[in-house]
Automatic annotation (TrEMBL):
InterPro entries: BCAA_transport, Leu-bd, Peripla_BP_I
Classification via PANTHER family: LEUCINE-SPECIFIC-BINDING PROTEIN
Protein name: Branched-chain amino acid transport system substrate-binding protein
Domain Leucine-binding protein positions: 34-399
Length: 437
C-alpha cells in the first residue's frame, strides 16, 4: 500500500508540474493588452455624461477585441486586445491630473477624455510635459467631446486628437438652420461659466452678426458649471426678455434642468442646443419641445440609411435599458481609427527594441487616418488634429411622425434630421502651428 501511494504521489507530482508548466506557457502566450484610460466625471453633477461615454467605448472595444484585437507584428508583442480602464475625475481638473499620473503609472498608452474643455486643456499641457520628460512612456490623448476651439488652434498638440466637431463648427451648423427662421427677432444666450460656455457665447454673437444682424440679443449670461439646482430664476428672465429662442451649449443636468424650468414658466420659444438630444432633456421638456428643440450632432438615430439603422439597433441590443440610450457614432470612429493606426504603425516597424509600441509612429498614422463605419466617414486633419466629419441638425418631434422612427431614452420623442452639413462645409480654418517631435 505504501509503495502504491508513493507511485501515486509521484504521478501526482508529475501531473502537477506539467500543469504548472502548461499554465505558465499559457500566461506567456497570452498577449498583453493595450491599455486605454478613460478619465471622466463618473460622479458629480455630470456623471450621466461620463457613464454614457464609457458605455460607448466598452461597445467599441468589444467589437475590436471580438475580431482578434489589434493585429501587431511579433516584434511589437503580436496581436493585442484593447483594455479599458476607468478613472473618476469627479469633473475636477486636479482629480483628472491625478488620474492621469495613475493611468500612466499603470501602463496606459492612450488617454480618453471629453466632458470638460477646461480639464482637456490641462491634460494637454500635462501630457506635453510628460511625453517630453519620459519618451519611453509617451501617451496619446484622444478627445471625444471637449470642443473649445483653441484646443486645436493655439493650444494644438501633436499628442492631442479631437474627434468631435469644435464649438464653432457646431455653432455654424446650428446657424445654418437658425438663419432661415425668418420669424425670429430676438435670442437669449445662456451658458456655463467656464472656457467652453464663454466661447459658445462669443461665437453665437459673432455668427448672428454675420448671418442674422437683424436678430437682437436680449440676454447673454453665464451660470456656475454643474452647481445650479434651480433654473427657475434664469427661465423667468428668459421669458421676461421676450426672446424667441435660446442658444445654449449647456450639457448634462445644466441643460435638462434649464429646459424643464423654461417649460415650467411657460417659455414658448425654440432652443438651439449643442446637446439637447439626450441625457434627460427631451423627457424634461415633453410636448413643449415638439418643433422647438434643435440639436446638432455628428450623427442622430433617425439618419435614414440602412447602415445607420443597423448600427443603432445593434447598440440597443447591447444596451437595452432606455436610460442607457445615448449612442455616439464619433466614439466608434475614434476606436476604429485608433486600432487602424496602431496596426499601420506596427506594419511599418513602429515598435522599439524592447517591443514597446512607438507612440510617435502611432500618432503619425492617426493624424492622417480615414475611417468609415456604419455609413459614417471621418478623416483626421493632420494640420491641427481636428477630425472632419458630416454634421446633422435635428428637430425634436414625437416618435412616429415622419422621419422619427426612433425616440430618445424611451421618452416618446426623437429628432428628425432637418439639415445635413457635409464634412467639407463643416470644416473651418485653423491657426494651429503644430510642433512635431
Amino acid at each position: 500500500m505504501f509503495i502504491l501511494s508513493r507511485q501515486v504521489l509521484k504521478l501526482g507530482a508529475t501531473a502537477l508540474f506539467a500543469s504548472v508548466l502548461s499554465v505558465a506557457s499559457a500566461v506567456a502566450q497570452t498577449p498583453s493588452a493595450i491599455k486605454i484610460a478613460v478619465i471622466e466625471g463618473f460622479s458629480g453633477a455630470n456623471a450621466n455624461g461620463g457613464e454614457a461615454a464609457f458605455r460607448n467605448f466598452v461597445w467599441a472595444v468589444e467589437r475590436v477585441n471580438a475580431r482578434g484585437g489589434v493585429k501587431l507584428p511579433a516584434s511589437a508583442g503580436g496581436n493585442q486586445p484593447l483594455q479599458l480602464e476607468r478613472f473618476d475625475s469627479k469633473g475636477q481638473t486636479e482629480e483628472a491630473l491625478s488620474a492621469l499620473r495613475s493611468a500612466i503609472d499603470g501602463g496606459a498608452r492612450v488617454i480618453l477624455q471629453g466632458n470638460s474643455s477646461g480639464v482637456a486643456a490641462s491634460l494637454i499641457d500635462a501630457i506635453n510635459k510628460h511625453n517630453e520628460r519620459d519618451p519611453a512612456r509617451r501617451v496619446l490623448f484622444l478627445n471625444y467631446a471637449a470642443v473649445l476651439p483653441e484646443l486645436t488652434n493655439e493650444k494644438c498638440s501633436f499628442w492631442h486628437f479631437r474627434f468631435d466637431a469644435h464649438s464653432d463648427m457646431r455653432m455654424a451648423a446650428l446657424m445654418d438652420v437658425l438663419k432661415d427662421d425668418k420669424a425670429l427677432k430676438s435670442v437669449y444666450i445662456i451658458g456655463q461659466d467656464y472656457s467652453f460656455g464663454q466661447a459658445v457665447a462669443r461665437e453665437a454673437r459673432r455668427q448672428l452678426g454675420v448671418l442674422r444682424p437683424d436678430v437682437q440679443v436680449v440676454g447673454d449670461e453665464l451660470h456656475p458649471l454643474g452647481r445650479v439646482k434651480d433654473f427657475l430664476p434664469y427661465a423667468t428672465k428668459i421669458k421676461a426678455s421676450g426672446a424667441g429662442a435660446v442658444i445654449t451649449g449647456n450639457f448634462g443636468n445644466d441643460l435638462s434642468l434649464l429646459i424643464k424650468a423654461a417649460k415650467d414658466v411657460g417659455f414658448d420659444g425654440k432652443f438651439y442646443t449643442f446637446y439637447g438630444n439626450a441625457l434627460g432633456a427631451p423627457a424634461a421638456i415633453g410636448d413643449a419641445g415638439i418643433g422647438k428643440v434643435v440639436a446638432v450632432a455628428d450623427w442622430l438615430p433617425n439618419v435614414q440609411t440602412a447602415a445607420s439603422e443597423a448600427f443603432y439597433k445593434s447598440f440597443r441590443v447591447r444596451y437595452p435599458k432606455p436610460e442607457d440610450d445615448y449612442v455616439h457614432m464619433r466614439m466608434q470612429l475614434l476606436v476604429e481609427a485608433l486600432a487602424q493606426s496602431l496596426e499601420a504603425s506596427g506594419k511599418q516597424g513602429g515598435a522599439g527594441a524592447n517591443g514597446a509600441i512607438d507612440m510617435v509612429a502611432v500618432a503619425a498614422q492617426l493624424e492622417r487616418a480615414s475611417v468609415t463605419f456604419s455609413g459614417q466617414t471621418g478623416t483626421m486633419r493632420a494640420a491641427d488634429h481636428q477630425f472632419q466629419q458630416t454634421l446633422v441638425v435635428g428637430m425634436m418631434e414625437r416618435q412616429g411622425t415622419p422621419g422619427v422612427k426612433f425616440d430618445v431614452e424611451g421618452s416618446g420623442y426623437g429628432f428628425r434630421v432637418v439639415k445635413t452639413v457635409p464634412a467639407a462645409a463643416a470644416e473651418q480654418a485653423t491657426s494651429c502651428k503644430m510642433m512635431r517631435p
